[in-house]
Amino acid sequence: MAAAAVWKFDSSDGELLVTTGVTGPAAKMGHRLTLTMSWRATVRWVDDEPAELAVTVDVGSLEVLRGEGGVKGLSGPEKALARSNALKILDAEKFPQVSFKSADITRSDDGYRLEGVLEIRDTARPHTVELHVDELADAWRMSGETVVRHSDYGLKPYSMMMGAMKVTDEVTVSFAAERAAG
Fold it and tell me: Which intervals hold domain Lipid/polyisoprenoid-binding YceI-like (predicted)?
């Protein structure tokens, strides 16, 4: 790799998933949702090491892939309602993007530790992501998982039945992508 290079990739190279949980006395009635959104990333390399990363997620692209649990399966109208509720909580019209930026990238045993800033709505907070990297002969396979709390960003998780069933404060964000080497 040259002394300085830039990698650009997006949703066509992999996926970003958000998995919610359900809590409260009536939690068994709710669905644990798996959501996806489109994203794009830029990685700037210096001397064969990643030096800066910027990831932007398009909130309006949010899709409900599936719902697990609940009294019955998640129907099409319920998926549409869950999407609408999530967009409302994220205030997608006013804040159409979520971003993560890191200029503090260090090598770890199985990849890289990314220390940066995660911005959701109008709140930016320090956030760390452990990125697992498999360097294959012709590609890099990257994956990671991190927990984000609604409360850290001033978001109020969806609830119903006067709070007897609500989305957990913590959601899991997972990422997997593959990039041709070089």
Answer: 6-180
